[in-house]
């Protein structure tokens, strides 16, 4: 199966980005992504797929948190060495409304103690012809105070042009400078990733695919359509 996955172009990461971009090429994640891409997948299964990918992405993120070896006593009175992930207690998850809600539902399963914030962001598509950047309208922001020991996770299923991230990250950082800045997405583009990382080189992007193109409207191709509309049943 792993040999088959090597043929998936969208799991490849450019060499100069490999220290900051993490594509989750696990067969389980790629199988869920395939279901999400399929136009025949209905609202319920689409939403469930986003939740499952949220868990998978969260598990991948855990690898990059700080932990330490500890010793515990088992019920048999025997000492055993183990591992604790101390950074799990210091996580802030930011939901980009509304498409990221199912994704965050999965992330919270991995980070149950996470404090949460929300950002309502809408890209203004009227009059845009190049599909490479957009003005972003921010309607609502509610974010907890960010501490120096926190890992901030910004969840948005589609990292297309990077315009939304570039608009909301400075707003988030007004609430404090975190220890780490993670971006959780399902599908990204190299163009969007490079735009964000050129401005915020300390960030790390976790995604399940890097698709090759943006169309004239700024949609990812082949993509999976509008994640918000498909998850919440508002397709026209």
Describe the protein:
The chain is built from 7 helices and 14 strands. The chain has 236 residues and is an alpha/beta fold. It has one domain (9-232): 3-Layer(aba) Sandwich (Rossmann fold), CATH 3.40.50.2020. The strands form 4 sheets. The chain has a 7-stranded mixed beta sheet with strand order 1-11-9-7-4-5-6, sandwiched between helices. Strand 2 (68-73) and strand 3 form a beta hairpin. The longest helix is centred in the first third of the chain and has 20 residues, at 43-62. The chain is globular and about 65 Å long. It starts with a helix and ends with a helix. The mean pLDDT is 91.
Radius of gyration: 18 Å
How many β strands by DSSP?
A: 14
Straight-line distance between termini: 38 Å
Shape by Cα distribution: globular
Figure out the total of helices: 7
Q: Architecture, according to CATH?
A: 3-Layer(aba) Sandwich
Largest sheet: 7 strands, mixed
- SSE string, helices as H and strands as E: HEHHEEEHEEEEHEEHEEEEH
What is the CATH fold-level name? Rossmann fold
Helix-strand makeup class: alpha/beta
The residue fraction in helices comes out at 25-40%
Percent of residues in beta strands?
Answer: 25-35%
* CATH top level class name: Alpha Beta
Strand order of the largest sheet: 1-11-9-7-4-5-6
Detail the poorly predicted runs. none
How many domains comprise the coordinates?
1
Mean pLDDT: 91
